[in-house]
């Protein structure tokens, strides 16, 4: 069961000989069938947008006085062994936190302005208009170019640039569909789900399937067994087994330390940003081991899950998965008809290329929001909702360009993500106020890494490979490679 990602990923990448453990985790070592005090039940509501709506009971708040060291047990967080740990712009801040440092959920909510939790339909529709019109303008420019330059190998650089621009602009539509899935777009559920369903289907995302799995991701952020995206691979403890750390070492021995790390980082970047999203939808790549292999188009687990009570699509959600498939089938049918009438080149130029860029942005955001070389993960006994949510990282996406345009077009999804992970019902246009409140009242817990995004991505590609347990944390292991990563 521990090898399901390793066995399935080559099917995604066309039979490539590289094992999937080089790109996705977990692979060789299973954390185990971890049981939790929270249970995913068959939700009574057909439409659900938050962990509570989904039938996921939040774990008890962990606040001062609720830790396990009341009887004198050693607190491990502040005294963690830092040997082999590289540092990000956070400078190890997340590694210094102990369970006692985290407030109760209600204490965080109390400092956030009450208005932040109420979406405004008119304002949401205004932002939707901005994203839709901007994307339409880019598409119109592409259609005009098509009549002038056509599609050939010689015009590939032009269409690549077009894809980069159009995909970056259209990512705003993805973010708003994501907001619909969280219930942060409008109090009108029917309007909200209609918009989210259409937008996500057009981008080949199964709306309700993703709505469910993404809420699970929010509930189990940085959880080693039940996390839903970018769950690390644990260090192999059996001498007969290998892990991604061994494979990175192979690159170093083959190409030298510097070039080997460059090759490894480039491979990780490609496999995550290009293959990662379809891999996640099709086989649950980078998801935790406890649910077995999952598929967003078919509701039952593809393999026997180690923890059957944590099935990804329980009860009525199975029907919702099939409803999502209807939207995907309609769009795929339209794409096939378009290809038959006008050729694959036109479809890839105007739709396929921008979609690849959108998918890359999505993975970039999700990866960097929860991953860095000095940001830990947790086993079930050490994980709480608050602890997971407050290990989310805000980053300077507003500095990607001189005017902060990309951050605006993407509705500040990466620069206000801590607040979003604490309460996903906060609409994006109120997330800055919530972020400021959290930062002001809990500065010791708020994680903001000022590292420029390209540099942060490159560090994560090279250094976030395999983790080992130290105290109550799972920590990225980079012995002897720190200077090549930081």
Please tag this protein with its features.
2 strands, 16 helices, disordered N terminus, single chain, 486 residues, two-stranded antiparallel ribbon, mainly alpha
Overall 3D form: globular
Count of β-strands: 2
Number of helices: 16
Radius of gyration: 22 Å
The oligomeric state of the chains shown is: single chain
Description:
The chain has 486 residues and is mainly alpha-helical. Helix content is 48%, strand content 2%. It has 16 helices and 2 strands. The relative contact order is 0.18. The model is unreliable at 1-51 and 54-77 (pLDDT under 50).
Topology, please?
Layout (H helix, E strand, L loop, with lengths): L3 H9 L92 H7 L9 H29 L6 H27 L6 H14 L4 H13 L24 H12 L1 H27 L33 H26 L1 H27 L14 H5 L15 H5 L7 H6 L8 H11 L11 H11 L3 E4 L2 E4 L5 H4 L1
Antiparallel strand pairs: 1-2
Helix pairs in contact: 1-8, 3-4, 4-5, 4-6, 4-10, 5-9, 6-9, 7-8, 8-10, 8-15, 9-10
Quick structural overview:
The chain is mainly α and 486 residues long.
């Amino acid at each position: 069961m521990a090898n399901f990602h390793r066995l399935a990923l080559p099917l995604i990448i066309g039979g490539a000989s590289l094992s999937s453990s080089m790109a996705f985790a977990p692979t060789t070592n299973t954390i185990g069938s971890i049981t939790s005090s929270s249970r995913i039940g068959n939700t009574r509501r057909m439409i659900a947008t938050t962990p509570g709506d989904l039938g996921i009971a939040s774990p008890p708040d962990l606040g001062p006085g609720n830790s396990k060291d009341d009887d004198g047990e050693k607190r491990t967080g502040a005294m963690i062994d830092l040997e082999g740990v590289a540092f990000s712009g956070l400078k190890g801040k997340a590694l210094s936190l102990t369970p006692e440092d985290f407030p109760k959920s209600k204490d965080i909510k109390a400092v956030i302005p009450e208005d932040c939790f109420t979406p405004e339909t008119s304002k949401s529709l205004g932002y939707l208009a901005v994203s839709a019109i901007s994307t339409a303008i880019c598409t119109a420019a592409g259609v005009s170019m098509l009549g002038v330059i056509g599609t050939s190998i010689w015009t590939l650089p032009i269409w690549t640039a077009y894809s980069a621009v159009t995909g970056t602009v259209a990512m705003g539509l993805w973010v708003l569909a994501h907001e619909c899935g969280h219930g942060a777009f409008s109090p009108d559920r029917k309007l909200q789900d209609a918009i989210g369903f259409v937008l996500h289907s057009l981008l080949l995302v199964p709306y309700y399937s993703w709505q469910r799995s993404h809420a699970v991701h929010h509930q189990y952020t940085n959880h080693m067994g039940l996390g839903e995206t970018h769950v690390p691979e644990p260090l192999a403890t059996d001498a007969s087994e290998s892990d991604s750390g061994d494979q990175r070492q192979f690159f170093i021995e083959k190409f030298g330390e510097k070039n080997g790390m460059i090759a490894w980082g480039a491979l990780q970047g490609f496999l995550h940003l290009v293959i990662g999203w379809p891999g996640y939808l099709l086989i649950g790549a980078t998801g935790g081991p406890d649910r077995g292999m999952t598929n967003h188009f078919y509701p039952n687990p593809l393999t026997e899950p180690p923890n059957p009570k944590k099935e990804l699509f329980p009860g009525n959600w199975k029907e919702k998965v099939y409803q999502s498939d209807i939207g995907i089938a309609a769009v795929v049918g339209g794409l096939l008809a378009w290809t038959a009438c006008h050729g694959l080149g036109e479809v890839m130029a105007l739709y396929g290329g921008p979609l690849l860029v959108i998918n890359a942005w999505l993975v970039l955001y999700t990866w960097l929001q929860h991953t860095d070389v000095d940001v830990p993960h947790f086993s079930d006994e050490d994980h709480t909702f608050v602890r997971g949510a407050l290990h989310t990282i805000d980053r300077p996406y507003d500095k990607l360009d001189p005017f902060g345009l990309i951050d605006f077009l993407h509705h500040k999804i990466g620069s206000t993500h801590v607040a979003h992970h604490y309460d996903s019902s906060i609409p994006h246009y109120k997330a800055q106020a919530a972020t400021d409140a959290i930062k002001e009242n809990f500065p010791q817990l708020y994680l903001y890494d000022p590292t420029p995004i390209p540099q942060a991505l490159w560090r994560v590609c090279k250094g976030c490979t395999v983790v080992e347990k130290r105290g109550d944390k799972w920590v990225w292991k980079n012995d002897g490679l720190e200077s090549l990563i930081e």
